[in-house]
């Protein structure tokens, strides 16, 4: 008897297993399980979306407060029960998106501030800072520059030089600068968090000249002095005969990631001149910080004036 002529179910299972009721049951079972898995993941996505929305609500009310909020206040504003608020805030703290301040208030964490920096594109920052740097060059007749924090160093992203042909000047060049041996880097590091400073101090530091400080104790002491003075100096730490001064651009509820600086030869950058230009840099850095806090309005006004 040929296989396809066999009527016995046992033989049918043996010769044609893919047609048997037993196999069909397995297929049905697989289909049911797959359907359940789809429903399970769909529910997980919905729950995650709801949870994410609550996290964003908490962050939003803290940002808008300007001074930080207690858990009770966050719960009142967001209409989220206090136990849920504690859980959300705890998760945000673990990821350094929020941190606890005095008086049991919560403010923005360092990681959130770092994310917020991404909204400040180089092209916008340069566009807003250009009039300030041009004015500064005309006042002092030396080179002014704008620097930005990049990973483990800073980058000079914009340079304004004197336009008069009879004036000699130095161009610092664009690109990477170390955080420990350049005024633009030290100005940012000195006003950063303690953890950030420790990472700088205890990393492998390169000595560029005999004036470069690579001793952790000396660097820590210098950061403290810079913070008290308001600006940083680089006296032949990168290149012999060249000096620079820089001040941090400070914005409300954000970590420092920009600095404004000026550079020139040692014969021009005397102690008195560095002190004078340092105080001036503090002034225009604060002005730039205010402009960047309202950058959308500022850019809109500049565009309307240009048109």
List keywords for this structure.
307 residues, alpha+beta, Arc Repressor Mutant, subunit A, Beta-Lactamase, 11 helices, 15% strand, disordered C terminus
Care to give the gist of this entry?
The protein is 54% helix and 15% strand. It is α+β, with helices and mostly antiparallel strands and 307 residues long. The protein has 2 domains: 21-108, Orthogonal Bundle (Arc Repressor Mutant, subunit A); 115-306, Beta-Lactamase (2-Layer Sandwich), CATH 3.30.450.
Account of the protein in words:
The chain is α+β, with helices and mostly antiparallel strands and 307 residues long. It folds into two domains: 88 residues, Winged helix-like DNA-binding domain superfamily/Winged helix DNA-binding domain (Arc Repressor Mutant, subunit A, Orthogonal Bundle); 192 residues, GAF domain (Beta-Lactamase, 2-Layer Sandwich), CATH 3.30.450. Helix content is 54%, strand content 15%. It is built from eleven helices and eight strands. It has a six-stranded antiparallel beta sheet with strand order 5-4-3-8-7-6. The protein has a two-stranded antiparallel sheet with strand order 1-2. Strand 6 and strand 7 form a beta hairpin. Helix 6 runs antiparallel to helix 10. The longest helix has 45 residues. It is elongated. The N and C termini lie far apart (94 Å). 28% of the residues are buried. The N terminus and C terminus are likely disordered.
